[in-house]
Amino acid sequence: MTKKICVWFSILLLAIPFARAAEGFREMSFTLDGVTRTALVSAPATAKTNNTPLVFVFHGHGGNARQVARSFALNREWPEAISIYMQGLPTPGQLTDPQGVQPGWQAALGDQGDRDLKFFDAVLAQLKQDYAVDAKRIYCTGHSNGGGFTYLLWLARGNVFAAVAPSSAAARYADKLSPKPALIMGGKSDPLVKFIWQERTMDAIKKINGCASTGEPWDKQCTIYPSSNGAPLVTFIFPGGHQFNPAAPALIVKFFKEHPSQATK
Question: What pTM did the predictor assign?
Answer without folding.
Answer: 0.90
